[in-house]
Specification:
heterodimer; A: alpha/beta; Rossmann fold; 4-stranded antiparallel beta sheet; about 30% helix; globular; B: alpha+beta; Archaeosine Trna-guanine Transglycosylase, Chain: A, domain 4; 11 strands
Amino acid sequence: MFEVLERYKPIVDDWNAFMDALERPLPTCAWANTLRVSRDDVVASLAQADIEVRELGWHPDAFILPETLSVGNRIEFIAGLYQVQEEAALVPVHMMNMSEGDRVLDMCAAPGNKSAQLCVTLSNTGTVVANDRSYQRLRAVRNTADRLGLTNIVVTCEDAGNIPDRSGPFDAILADVPCSCEGTSRKNPSALKVSALDSIAKLGGTQRAILAKAFRLVRPGGLVVYATCTYAPEENEDVVQDVLDTLDFEPEWVDARIDGFVSSPGLTTWNDREYDPHMSSCMRVWPHHNDTGGFFVAMFRVPEAS
Amino acid sequence: MNFVSPEDSDRYLTFVRERWGLPDDFFEGYRLIAPNTKTINIINADLNPVDEPSPESCGLPFLRVKMIIPKITTAAALWIGPHATKAIVTLSKDRTDRFFRREDLELQPEDVCDVDYGYVLVKCGEMTVSVALLKDGILQNMHPKAWSIGEGISAFSF
């Protein structure tokens, strides 16, 4: 099953640890809905049922639940006290560091966890536009928003690359684009049935169109975040470089790092291609580093006058 | 966005505030909109949505109003629950599990309830978990199917 990953051997620091991590089940991560309760309150409620959680050193409101717990059936979940979300997927919104009153666009929002995370970060102020091109998948977005009590969410259904420019400007935009999802294989082994290389032709244009659109919709001085859950440089550094090459302004590279969360820098070369040396400020998340899925994040600050 | 008129907003918000004994300033900083003729949603006052693409939804579903007594949505019930002081029924764990299976429940002496008619918040311990219509001693189950649990499952088990 892991043959499709062999091509990453040159860029993985510890291949055996990487393989071992992929064989293990993915820990279940959740975060407290701080609009309603504190993390300590949720943890205390779970402790009453002898459910012990493990803290995440880097995220104050998140925790790891026991593997055997049926997380979606617990009363705390039904009451909207916590939301389940893969640990690596918490990273982009955490790094965006948004403020109350901000206007944020999540371009590919379904199933809605990152949008919900943004809404809670904004403390039910400002606006989070949760967009997805799949009307069916938006049901999950609304379901989560309702359970968590989010008043600052606006749900839209549009091809992310076609969102009208007049819908902006936004203080920040998250382009968590459709990808080959290799990094989710611990949860969804079928993600490795085919090589990411087979999806690139299909997804590459979409990924570039979405990131380019993000740069058109963000306000001067605003933040653009590009994220995928794949290891493939063709869907990560390649896309970032190609889109940056088309811009008529130079966005500032924002260092994508989190204290206490292990990550690797973005690649500056892959196969025969050399990227902008600033690509090292991107974040690559490998499963064996934090016992998570795989992820990639690039962050940019658009100039005040672009 | 189709804002609810100030008069109707005041009427709806006063109804909810008085029915569930919420603080006077609970809805400060929020506004009501009417996405359709049946539902009222609540949004934070500084919400700045997009015109295009036309939003599928904005904010939190708040009240169903095409009925004699407006019904608070389950989403809104969970939201106001921690601040509500009346019109609450508190169930045991066993009965909460049955409620999550969407059973109607006959009110029992051990159920703590301070009203005898109308929409009530359903709590278990300190947690607000749903909404029901209390009528003739029966808690008519309004729990959403999407948030229900299956037969043989408990919301309290490990």
